[in-house]
Amino acid sequence: MREVHVNWFQKEVDSPDRKWSFIEKQGNLLKFLLNRHQWYYFPRMLKSHEFPLHVDIEVSAVCDMQCPMCMRRHADISEYGHMEFGLFKKIVDECAENRLFSARLSWRGEALTHPQFTEFARYIKVVKKIPNVSFLTNALRMDEAMSGELVDIGIDYVSISVDGVGDIYNKIRAPLIFAQVYKAIKTLKDIRDNAGKDKPQIRVSGLWPAISQNKEEYFRIMTKVADKIVSNPVKDYRIAEDT
Questions:
Q1: What is the distance between the alpha carbons of residues 159 and 102, in angstroms, rounded to a whole number?
Q2: Mean per-residue pLDDT of the chain
Q3: Class of domain 21-232
Q4: Pairing state between β 11-12 and 228-232
Q5: CA 86 → CA 9, 80, 226, distances in Å?
Q6: Using one digit for the tens of pLDDT, what is the confidence trace for 186-223?
Q7: What is the pTM of this model?
Q8: b or e along 77-99 (b: 16 or more beta carbons within 10 Å of the residue's beta carbon)?
Q9: What percent of the chain has pLDDT over 70?
């Protein structure tokens, strides 16, 4: 029987202490540890949970950037747009009824393009009290007002794509520039810290080929504003995995 790799794509590149702090400061530690036990060991035991251990809810399939390495370039998702609140509420209500531990409010699109994003986030986190809620973003729309909302809502973590620093980032993520995204991350951190809160924890994720061109500088700069750093390889989405 062929081995199934779990979470093979992303690599941990940060220190164990920072990784643990990132987990601990999100709260719900016992629930997290139980969830991770089930996540990693149930597949090995050929066991399934009665309800998904984690749910990705793509609140928007729209994106405001055209990154060269993105899978969107090889998939026609033009017919999809923003999720309606009624559908979102139905999904979240079912998740809450089944005591879901974690949900992520993004997938292929940029979550912050949705004009109701903060309403969605507040509903799932504050009203329905899902223990762990996160989302991925390029931070183009993460201004001071948005950062304040994320802190107030208590989003557990935000993962921000930062592929290299300086000119390396600028070439990959145009029209965004590194100074702009760095300021957005720092603003979020400052608002959170000034409020005396631990959340949202801030994770930055970058393509390893971009990071590795000057990894010492990358870690020196990004550890000042990010709680955790992870990396991704460059994947050619035109090639299917063997089945």
A1: 14
A2: 90
A3: alpha beta
A4: antiparallel
A5: 33, 16, 34
A6: 999 999 999 999 999 999 999 898 999 999 999 999 99
A7: 0.89
A8: eeeeebbeeeebeebbeebeeee
A9: 87
pLDDT band at residue 24 under the 50/70/90 scheme? very high
Q: Which long-range contacts does 189-195 make (Cβ < 8 Å, 24+ apart)? A: 189/225, 191/144, 191/147, 191/148, 191/151, 192/147, 192/151, 195/151
Pick the range with the lowest mean pLDDT from 40-44, 119-123, 159-163, 230-234.
230-234
**pLDDT at residue 132 greater than cutoff 90:** yes
3-state per-residue secondary structure call for the chain: CCCCCCCCCCEECCCHHHHHHHHHCCCCHHHHHHHHHHHHHCCCCCCCCCCCCEEECCCECCCCCCCCCCHHHHCCCCCCCECCHHHHHHHHHHHHHCCCCEEECCCCCCHHHCCCHHHHHHHHHHHCCCCEEEEEECCCCCCHHHHHHHHHHCCCEEEEECCCCCHHHHHHHCCCCHHHHHHHHHHHHHHHHHCCCCCCEEEEEEEHHHHHHHHHHHHHHHCCCCCEEEEECCCCCCCCCCC
Calculate helix-pair angle for 29-41, 16-24, nearest 10 degrees: 120
How many Å apart are CA 163 and CA 149, to the nearest integer? 26
Burial per residue of 31-52, b for 16 or more beta-carbon CB atoms within 10 angstroms, e otherwise: ebeebeebbeeeeeeeeeeeee
Reported confidence tier of residue 80, pLDDT bands at 50, 70, 90: confident
Rounded CA separation 207/165 (Å):
11
Region 68-90: mean pLDDT is: 78
